[in-house]
Amino acid sequence: MKITTITSLALLTSPPKTLAKQLKKAINKYKQGKQQQALNALLELNQQIPNNIDILHLLGYILIQAEMYKQASDFLLAAYSLQPKNAIVCFNLGRALFFLGKYKDAITPFKVTCNTFANNLDCRKFLAVSYQNLDHLHEAYQTFSEINKIQPSKEISVNISLCFERMNITEYDEKVADELTCLYALEYVDSNNLQRLTSILLAQKYQSFTFNTSLSLIQLNDDKLLLAMLSASAVLIPRLEPWLTTIRQKLLYDFQDNNGDSRYTALLVAMAKQSFFNDFIFYADIDEQHKVELIKQQFQKKFSFEKLLYLSLYQRIKIDSEQIETTNDIPDSLRTWWQLIYHNSIVEHGLAKKVELLTKINEKTSLKVKAQYEQHPYPTWQRLPYIAKRNLNQDLDIHLGHSPKFSLKSGRKIDVLIAGCGTGKQPLNLAQNYPDTNIIAVDLSLTSLAYAQRQANKLGIKNIKFMQADIQDLALIKQRFHLIECCGVLHHMADPFIGWRQLTKLLAPKGIMKIALYSQLARNEITELRSYITNHNITSTDDSIRAFRHKLINNQLPIKLNNYIDTGDLMATSSCRDLFFHVQEHQLTIPWIKQSLQKLGLSFCGFDLTKVKQEFQNKFSQLNQQPNAIRDLDLWESFEQHYPATFTNMYHFYCESIS
To answer: Which of 32, 87, 376, 501 could disulfide-link to 574, CB 3.0 to 4.6 Å?
Structure first.
């Protein structure tokens, strides 16, 4: 299908020869880079010949390119009043209004252009994003879908997923279900964005998750949307858990009734993958545990892929290397499950041996933290969402309120340190989105680093190096970094300030840091639960974590969880352990941050507001309207006292070296 393009630097009419010559002269000046001369010539012509659509349109177009959107919209509105159906005038008027944030006003002119140039992608994208910004999500989805039919792309698929993230639907829609299923299959789409709408559709299809008929398993085994969701990543929708545990239970009972000859292989594989993704967090009653133990005894007597699959609904079964490597006998229907659980572990075991040791790990607390993450790497993740490649300097400008002050030699990339990279999602996201970076990512845990390296290899990301190190000894290395990110790490050290001080020594002149720390106020309920765990001698074994969580989500504990119930941290064993059972945790305050910044010679540049809920952003702006209030720590301290849940997602902030 031919893609229509819109040429804005052209005459819309056939003016008299003298005027046409003057207009073309102005256009040529603009093309030669003489923007101001072209603008002056057109302004003079507008004085001489008012209400001429060619003059008004060209003025509007050039002013858009100069990012003078208000002036551009004035001229283009005048042109629009002369010819409201002119598709080119409408396109540029829509753009000017769009850049002014007047999305509602931009829709009408964009629709005129789309009706005239049906296959113009630029206009359709502007229209779709206008709908999206107005929360007209059904219209946005439909427009993005039309674009995808003309020219499919990663960007458009991601935008459709973002529409689905917040879209509501009143009855089951097969077309939307098919679209969701296709999106789950795309590795570059964040499957978490799709789960809420998927749960709505499944509730509509299965009558709010009732499970009464004998045909249910057969129906579920053929449900492509359900299988796609379960096979993509850990399900983070709490209301789905009772239904999924019932499905798992019925699959287990089916094994007993049919001697392991299952008719539901697709559903079994998807549920086994889901159990692996969530670290087998779902609770099992005594009867289930007994049946699992019987299957396990049978499996230990005689190896069977089918029995192993059933066991994988409930626990990770260790098997010897010879069995892992004997892949020729694996049924084709089980290969993706086998690769996920067993093949990847072999790959990671090999990669762990190749990780370079940057510093020794001897400190007592560091060794305890390392041991936790060797057992439960965190976070476990399956895919890295696509974001169009960007320029890091420009994005830092947005966060800092000014351009980065560090100097770079021509052609040199930005040197970045990720201190405490875990399983690699944060640094790989940075490396993928900002190819103008060279990244070193360090962590205590070899298991986590091997996981990260496997994902890097899979994604083909080259501008990153994973190394094992303890932050408190990093100052011994000679390299200096323009940007250092340390998010969710310092509060797990013996002394957060010492760790931060060591990192500050690694900053290049005028370097920038991004830090994320637990808020004492926001984590008040976590503190209470951690005290309950300590007082009741609850250990951090998988079984203990599972049992504690089961009581928590079923309101069987004296302490209720409010702020963190929908964060997703309850939906996997590794994240539950990180949230409630961590071996070391400090909770900090804004005054502590302010004092530490002063001691370290760093200036506060502002919180990363993408990590703060919109309701708190809006409330802060309403209460603090003075210039630069957003970068005033004293104002934020006062605000947090009144709204203690503001930093539930940690204090994420930027700071930079003063010297």
So the answer is: 376
Which distant-in-sequence residues (6+ apart) come within 8 Å of 432 by Cβ?
Answer: 384, 387, 389, 459, 461
Q: What is the DSSP string of 255-317?
A: HHHTTT--S-HHHHHHHHHHHHHTTT-S---HHHHHHHHHHHHHHHHS--HHHHHHHTTT-PP
Residues 397 and 311 in one domain: no
AA letter at 450? A
Q: How far apart are CA 405 and CA 397, in angstroms?
A: 10
What are 584-612's pLDDT values in tens digits? 999 999 999 999 999 999 999 999 988 99
Evaluate whether 461 touches 431 at the Cβ level (below 8 Å): yes
User: What is the C-alpha separation between 283 and 246, in angstroms, rounded?
Assistant: 11
Q: Can you say whether the dihedral through the CA atoms of 108, 109, 111, 115 is positive or negative?
A: positive
467 & 607 share domain: no
| Residue, of 640 and 397, whose pLDDT is higher | 640
pTM (global) more than 0.85: yes
- H-type helices in 401-541, by residue range? 425-433, 446-459, 496-504, 524-535
Instruction: Find where tokens 């892929």 sit.
Output: 305
Q: For residue 43, which of 71, 15, 1 has the smallest C-alpha distance?
A: 71
Read off the pLDDT of residues 493-537 as tens digits, 9 standing for 90 and up.
999 999 999 999 999 999 999 999 999 999 999 999 999 999 999
Give the mean model confidence (pLDDT) for residues 456-460. 96
Strand partners of residue 512: 483, 656
Closest CA to 517 of 571, 590, 452: 590
Beta bridge partners of 417: 440, 484
The answer on 493 and 411 residing in a single domain is: yes
Position 328 pLDDT exceeds 70: no
CA 485 to chain centre: 17
Q: For residue range 176-196, list pLDDT tens digits in order.
A: 999 999 999 999 999 999 999
User: Which residue in 593, 641, 643, 594 sits closest to 618, CA to CA?
Assistant: 643
Yes or no: say if 212 and 270 are a contact pair by the CB < 8 Å rule.
Answer: no
Q: Which amino acid belongs to residue 43?
A: L
| Domains: count for the chain | 5
Element (H, E) at 128: helix 121-133
Largest Cα span, the chain: 97
Of 270, 269, 351, 275, nearest in space to 305 by CA? 269
Whether residue 462 is predicted with pLDDT greater than 80 in this model: the reply is yes
- The sign of the dihedral angle between the CA atoms of 442, 445, 447, 451 is negative
Whether 367 and 505 share a structural domain: yes
List of long-range contacts for 74-81, beta carbons under 8 Å, 24+ apart: 75/46, 78/51, 79/53, 80/109
The strand pair at 507-517 and 651-657 is best described as antiparallel
Contacts of 642 (CB under 8 A, 6+ apart): none
CATH number at residue 48: 1.25.40.10
